[in-house]
Amino acid sequence: MSRREAAARGAPYPLTTIETLRVSWRVFLLVLLILTHVPMHYLWKLLHLPSAWPRWFLARVGWIAGARVRKIGVPLRKNVFYVANHLSWIDILALGGASGTAFIAKAELAQAPLVGWLAGLNRTVYVKRENRLGVAEQINELRDALDENWAVTIFPEGTTTDGQSLLPFKTPMLRVLEPPPPGVMVQPVLLDYGAVAEDIGWIGEESGIVNAKRILARKGRFRLDIHFLEPFHPRDFPGRKAIAAESRRVIEGALIATLGKPLRDFAHTVEAVRYEGKPADL
What we know:
The protein is of the alpha/beta class. Helices cover about 40% and strands about 15% of the residues. α2 packs antiparallel against α3 and α3 packs across α4 (about 90-100).
């Protein structure tokens, strides 16, 4: 059994000496980014200037982790609801860096040390999925975000997969599009890691610490193509289930074309992504 397979089953991931050095170097660079970009963000806010520092920060963290991002297609910049497949926490860095989008995240993320604070810098919209009585209030928060001309991203699979599969799309947070705010479009997005997708994918019982170590210990770089697919108007697909179905249809078609073969069933138990051991359910 390979170390990758063992990690997916929840086993520890011991690092070699050279891997430990890679992780240490990348962590050092991440600390430098925090020390330089975060103060500049607050300075921009203090001067009441639009701040692109969170976007630059996310893009550079992804670069340090090894991702070399290529945008394919034209991303809508404002008044857009991105719907994307989900493989890794790298997705958030890459999408945020490439488009400036905010994200919808589970409320627990706000309490996560450092990660929650950084997510807040990027205008993350927090939701409590278990708080059914507060759904209307949460939908109003999302509407307010869209009203401010943000791009907002949701990962409707509800967990991370392996780049060879596509899970059913969950629909509760698409209620913000019932009815759609004026001028808002939906743009499906395919995240394609190519040959390294299964290695990058955060799957099975792998813990968050092990996954971070494993990714930061990888040698060299890996490509990540972000396919911004054809947008559509949500009024043409009334209701969140129809919007989810159309988004999934478009992403599935693009993924099959990229892989050059049919999708396969996801081989692991599907659980919501957790920041206690995995990233927040997005």
